[in-house]
Design goal:
By secondary structure, the protein is of the alpha/beta class. Helices cover about 35% and strands about 25% of the residues. The chain has a seven-stranded mixed sheet, sandwiched between helices. Helix 7 links the parallel strand 8 and strand 9. Helix 4 crosses helix 12. The longest helix is centred in the C-terminal third of the chain and has 16 residues.
Length: about 325
C-alpha cells in the first residue's frame, strides 16, 4: 500500500509517497537511473520504469501551480500551445476515433488541444486541470473548465463520449486510478486516448537519463508492454490501438552534445516555439521529407518519443 514517509530525496523537509509499480503493482525492482537526486527504478515483472518516492507537492498539485507564471503562461509557451501546428498529429488521431461528442481533456493546461477541435467537428468541450492560471487562459479561449483534481471530481451531468490524457499520466502517482475514473465517466463504447513518454523511444535508447524528459516530475515511463499490462489489470477497457508519435531530432542532438541534470523551463519553451517555426518554414521542405520518413519509420517500430494508446470502454 502507498504510504507517506520522510526521505532524503528531492527535499528532505517534505514527505513523499512510497509506491510499488504503477503498471502491475509488483514491488520487486532494480535501479535504472539516478538524476538530480531522483531515483528511477525498473520493475522486474513488467519492465516499467518509475519513481518510487513521489513528493507530496506532485500529488496535491502545488508543484504545478507554482510553475504557472514562469512556464505555462510564459510568452513562448503560450505561442507554442496556440500554434496551429502544435497539435496536428493529436487532432488527426482524435478525429479518426471521435468525429463529434462531449469531450473531456484532463490536464488541459491553457486549452491548446481543445481550442482547435471545433475546426474538425461538432464538439462540446470541457477541460480539467490543477493549475488555476492555466485554466484562466483556457477559459478565455471559450472552453468550459473544471477546477478540481480529477480523482476527486464528481460530475452530475451526462457522461462523456471521449476523454483525453495528453502528457498527463507520466505526472501522476496513480495512473491506473486515472484510467479507472475515466471509465466511470464515459458512455458505453466511449473512447479514451492517452499519450505518455515512450520508454523504448530512440531518444531514451540513445541517451538514457541524459535525455531532458527524464525528469523529477515525470514519475512514470511506460513501454507498450507495461501500458497494456496496466490496462488489462484495471479491466473494463478494449485496447483499440497502441502507436507512437513525435520525434524531435534537435532535442536528441542537443542533449547528446550537452547533457545536463535539468533543462530550464524557459529553454524548453523556447525550443518548442523554434521547432514549430521550423516545421512551417518552406525553406526546409527537402529536410521535412527526410524527417517525415524517419518519423514514420520510428512510429512503425514504436520508437518515436511518445506512446499513444486508444482505449474503448466496454459496454
Amino acid at each position: 500500500m502507498d504510504k507517506p514517509k520522510q526521505t532524503n530525496g528531492i527535499d528532505a523537509t517534505h514527505s513523499v509517497i512510497e509506491r510499488s509499480c504503477p503498471a502491475c503493482r509488483e514491488s520487486r525492482s532494480i535501479e535504472r537511473w539516478v538524476k538530480a537526486d531522483t531515483r528511477f527504478v525498473q520493475c522486474e515483472s513488467c519492465g516499467m520504469v518509475y519513481v518510487t518516492e513521489v513528493p507530496i507537492s506532485f500529488v496535491n498539485g502545488e508543484f504545478y501551480e507554482d510553475r504557472t507564471e514562469s512556464f505555462y503562461l510564459s510568452e513562448d509557451k503560450l505561442q507554442s500551445d496556440y500554434d496551429p501546428i502544435r497539435f496536428q498529429r493529436e487532432w488527426k488521431l482524435f478525429r479518426r476515433w471521435v468525429p463529434s461528442g462531449r469531450i473531456l481533456d484532463v490536464g488541459c493546461s491553457t486549452g491548446g488541444f481543445l481550442r482547435g477541435l471545433p475546426l474538425f467537428g461538432s464538439y462540446d468541450l470541457t477541460g480539467l486541470d490543477v493549475s488555476q492560471g492555466a485554466l484562466n487562459m483556457a477559459e478565455r479561449q471559450g472552453i468550459h473548465v473544471i477546477r478540481e483534481p480529477f480523482l476527486e471530481w464528481e460530475p452530475s451531468g451526462p457522461r462523456f463520449d471521449a476523454i483525453t490524457f495528453w502528457a498527463v499520466l507520466e505526472h501522476v502517482e496513480k495512473p491506473d486510478a486515472f484510467l479507472h475514473k475515466a471509465a466511470s465517466l464515459l458512455q458505453p463504447d466511449g473512447i479514451c486516448i492517452l499519450l505518455v513518454p515512450n520508454l523504448h523511444s530512440l531518444a531514451i535508447r540513445c541517451l538514457g537519463s541524459r535525455y531532458r524528459y527524464i525528469m523529477a516530475e515525470h514519475l512514470n515511463y511506460f513501454s507498450a508492454r507495461a501500458l497494456r499490462r496496466m490496462v488489462h489489470r484495471i479491466g473494463g477497457w478494449e485496447v483499440e490501438e497502441v502507436t507512437s508519435m513525435h520525434f524531435n531530432p534537435v532535442v536528441l542532438i542537443k542533449d547528446a552534445l550537452r547533457p545536463r541534470s535539468e533543462v530550464p523551463d524557459a529553454e524548453r519553451a523556447q525550443l518548442l516555439k523554434k521547432t514549430n517555426r521550423l516545421k512551417k518554414s518552406p525553406l526546409l521542405t527537402p529536410l521535412k521529407v527526410v524527417y517525415n520518413g524517419l518519423e514514420s519509420v520510428l512510429t512503425g517500430l514504436l520508437a518515436a518519443d511518445n506512446l499513444v494508446a486508444v482505449l474503448r470502454r466496454r459496454s
